[in-house]
Task: structure prediction
Amino acid sequence: MKTVLITGCSSGYGLETARRFHAEGWNVVATMRSPRHDVLPKSERMRVLTLDVTDPESISAVIEESGPIDALVNNAGIGVVGAFEATPMSHIRKVFDTNTFGVMAMTQAVIPQLRARRSGVVVNVTSSVTLAAMPLAAAYTASKTAIAGFTGSLAHELAAFNVRVKLVEPGYAPTTRFAHNTTMPVEDLIPKAYAEFAAPIFAQFAAPPLVTTETDVAEAVWHAANDQSGQLHFPAGADAVALAQAR
Result:
């Protein structure tokens, strides 16, 4: 029976992905900063562990407690929406600590066991902002685009050891906690000078023509983790698929 370790499972994509792998008969290690046992199935195949991907000691403890794993899903992330000019560098560093360096740290911690067994897969969850430039998301886009490049390069590097590396690119999901999963409120990052520019963009956010659901992303992660081909990119959601096709 295979084991998957998933980061950021308290809600949204990570939560639905943990449920999907469990339903498929996998052992699941669902990690989150503040464990919520009530949101996941009670099962011997489901473990909920505390993890802060920005803390090396926390990462080491989870890797040790998890035991051998067959798949790592790097899903944990924080969002930031607003004018780049108004976004404090301290917050941008916080975004990169989770979205970029947290993913790299988790991956680096898991690679040795996958390489030694010459099997396994790493799935990195980014965003459709890597498929097309979008306004008011410069810092977030930068943090996710870094992982897109990282994943492509690493896929070549680990192929020599029969370890697969995949990239899931979710579209816009209004029902997720993206806008809330940040310590900087959106209204604090829209100066008056940007108000007129931002108004129609937020109006479109409120009524998007195409959206992505948590199920879309869980499905894409599942397929990416089990894909044996050389496919790297897995857009998730109707809007992400449309952007990928447009490219």
Observations:
- The radius of gyration is 18 Å.
- The mean pLDDT is 92.
